Amino acid sequence: MSWLGQLNLDYTRDGDRTIALDRHDGPLRVLQRLYPEGPGVCHHVLVHPPGGIVGGDVLHLTAQLAPGTHALITTPGATRFYRSAGEEAVQSAVAQVADGARLEWLPLETIAYRGCIARNRMRFELAPTAEMMGWDVLALGLPAASEAFEGSAHPHSRFTQEIDLPGTWLERGTVHASDTLLLDSPLGWAGHRVMGTLWFAAGSALPRTRREALLDAARGLQAAHPLDATAGSTSPHEQVIVLRVLGPRVEPVMGLLSQVWAAWRQSAWNLAPCPPRVWRT
Q: For the chain, what are the domain ranges?
């Protein structure tokens, strides 16, 4: 049996409070609104009670952020794409962020199990004065549990990833389990099986001094982080800054992303980091 899930989040401003209405059809939903840092920032935790995504499942989230709202969206644990008998599993998210609004898209890691056929799409449409921070952490298989993402037994295994900031930055690629040249080459995943991406984006050009400050913060933390991995920060467009990390395990990759997110939050928005409590449970 395939799961079809649709969730819509509609954030509006009520005085100094960001409030949200949610409508869902199927198993994808959110827990209650949380305000650990005051009424201006609404924290939401996405939940999918079936616990994993398999071939034939389709989950779709849409979010609309009205002017002046601020939403932080996360998950209580890893998103897991399990082995497929042949159908593709699809998860997608589309967010429209109005002028003066801020979005933090911070789900915990995605795990692609061997044998999966999966697609994960994200699209963020930013109005001229909207801003966002987001991250994505993809782990291929569970090598420590002898569940490597490899193609000898499951040559059909593949994971397609898409991150789209229309007109600004588009990343789209497919990893096949049998593509050892990509997975093991120093020009590809370099033998690592975890890739983390963190971005800061705006709806219009960021001033050069602001971009440089954000890049300097990321690069300083990269240099100091005891990470057995490869990391690099760049600004591929005047509206976006990207940090990329390749590592052997999720924990060090997520650790660096969390540190840079906290630094960017303070530098760009003058907000102290407020990690969701669910990350510690």
A: 4-201
